[in-house]
Design goal:
extended, 0% strand, mainly alpha
């Protein structure tokens, strides 16, 4: 029942009984209406609808995997949620293992040196702990496989960066001195201001170095190139450092973009009167949602890139899985919504 209905009912009751003396409540003149019983769903209907539901789900998954970005988002989600799940299972079973180890050590210390220890199933961790450890092992192996697959799919990333570079060069070459004068006068460029162009060039440079180092290290680990294991390790470290630089620049770009968008005039928001207030509000809502998601993704990647940029690392396995699952969940939700029919 809605709050309006409740308020209306209570107001009507108070009005009807306000003139009566205090005492026992006035009984209702009408018999209470029994609440309708929910109709049970026949189990046969549930089983009959199961094939169509499974078919719709698989068709949706197939649509998610039709593009390279969709494949990468799916692999990212599965990779790090599996890693996080493995870490959680290992942490849950660790107390049982430690308790069993302490019991065995105490038993061994209490026996004479000539005694022989015979282990039975009761001395080992419980069957549930053993199943959890086996599942954690499988999940970690699955995560490692997916991580390797994502690295393989990124081998062609330099090709997309070439077209990124091509677009930046064409934009730079098509700008005329007249446009530059307009930039100084109005404080913006026709295709984006100078700050945005500088940010794009820096991000492109960091991505090219990152991808080149990762490709070389990965191909050398598979025997395709001849980098030594030490060189591969250094390449992976430096590729992560350039990735960290990209993430830092991207976070700065997001705040610059938000600042710039907040300084727009009313004419710029409404397109010189061609947009309605509802359209502007909807655009602002969509832009804000996209901006927040991008910021959260990069804030989650930031500590991970620093972790992978150091030899020893700064995060534990559970923290790595939890932080990397955040971008995976955001991207898979967006992908699932965009591919819905």
């Amino acid at each position: 029942m809605s709050s309006t209905a409740v308020n209306s009912s209570s107001t009507a009751t108070a009005t009807a009984t306000s003139d009566l003396p205090s005492g026992d409540p006035v009984p209702s003149s009408e018999a209470p209406v029994p609440a309708p019983k929910p109709k049970p769903i026949p189990i046969r209907d549930v089983f009959a609808a199961a094939p169509s539901n499974v078919d719709a789900f698989l068709a949706h998954v197939q649509r998610c995997l039709q593009t390279p970005s969709g494949i990468d988002s799916t692999l990212l989600f599965l990779c790090y949620t599996s890693r996080f799940g493995a870490s959680v299972l290992e942490s849950l079973t660790r107390p049982a293992i430690q308790r069993s180890a302490r019991q065995l050590l105490a038993l061994a210390a209490s026996l004479p040196p000539s005694a022989t220890l015979v282990f039975t199933a009761k001395a080992l961790p419980s069957h549930g702990a053993a199943i959890a450890l086996a599942l954690a092992k499988r999940l970690r192996a699955f995560s490692t496989l997916l991580s390797d697959a994502r690295t393989f799919l990124r081998l062609w990333g330099l090709l997309s960066m070439y077209f990124w570079l091509r677009r930046l060069v064409l934009r730079w070459r098509t700008q005329s001195p007249k446009d530059d004068a307009a930039v100084e006068k109005k404080g913006k460029e026709k295709g984006g201001d100078r700050m945005e162009a500088a940010i794009s060039w820096v991000q492109l440079a960091t991505c090219i170095v990152f991808q080149s180092l990762e490709n070389g290290a990965y191909l050398s680990s598979k025997g395709v190139m001849g980098w030594s294991p030490a060189a591969q390790g250094k390449a992976y470290l430096w590729s992560a450092r350039f990735w960290a630089a990209f993430v830092g620049v991207e976070i700065g770009r997001l705040f610059y973009e938000s600042h710039k968008r907040g300084k727009r005039t009313r004419a710029e928001k409404f397109g010189d009167g061609t947009k309605t207030a509802a359209e502007v509000e909807r655009e602002e809502q969509e832009w804000g949602d996209s901006w927040r998601k991008t910021l959260v993704r990069n804030l989650a990647w930031a500590p991970l890139t620093v972790h992978w940029s150091t030899t020893e690392g700064i995060l534990g396995e559970m923290a790595v899985g939890a932080l990397a699952s955040i971008p995976g969940v955001i991207q898979i939700r967006d992908l699932w919504r965009k591919t819905a029919e």
